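User: I'm putting together a small comparison set for a docking exercise, and I want a reference complex before I start. The sequence is below, and the ligand is glutathione. Could you produce the 3D structure with the ligand included, as structure tokens?
Assistant: Of course. I'll restate your input first, then give the structure tokens for the complex.
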Amino acid sequence: MTLKLHNYWRSSASHRVRIALNLKGLAWEYVVVNIVKAEQHAQGYTTKNPMAQVPTLELPDGRMLSQSLPIMEYLEEAHPEPPILPRDPYDRARCRALAEIINSGIQPLQNLSTTNAIKSFGGDAAVWPRRFITDGLAAFERALTGDGAFSCGEAPTIADCCLVPQLASARRFGVDPAQFPRLLAIEERCLALPAFANAAPDKQPDAVRT
Ligand SMILES: N[C@@H](CCC(=O)N[C@@H](CS)C(=O)NCC(=O)O)C(=O)O
């Protein structure tokens, strides 16, 4: 019995948890939930994830966890080494705040159900998220303190687990991250690590290559 991650290759919230699982060095199984084919709404899945979203982490004993940030917090508590949060309480809170800029300040506005709603109102779903992505990434960059190699110091944390997928989404939605040089430098250091490189959307078994 192993951990199972119910997820989708291009989901940024799934991507966060893939990175965290890899950083912790845990063995896990990939279970595809194709959100473009609406598999997240299947009855068998909504019992696992009441919000009908990916990711869901299934524990070896069959219990389910949803919401990527609580999943990463669970992994940190259940498997403390190597840490993915700083030790100092203030630094931990600041790191969580960086993750929240992306988790609550950007991702919900680019989510599939949101862009589908925008389309249903006659809006341009390709353009709609750009302002929120740009403003949120600018806020993330402004919120960085110190000159650490990663978002919260000298080791990768949950803030980086959120940042790298969000930069991938930014490109997909037509936002050029070149305007955020500090974020690009952090991304480059992250992607040099196998935990991040192996979690990339195009490396996943369900990736659709165009
Ligand atoms: N706050 C949730 C967000 C999860 C989420 O929005 N997942 C998206 C993919 S990144 C999803 O499943 N979307 C399906 C839909 O909108 O129908 C988390 O962090 O896990």
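The mean pLDDT is 97. The chain has two domains: 3-82+197-203, 89-195.
User: Thanks, that's exactly what I needed.
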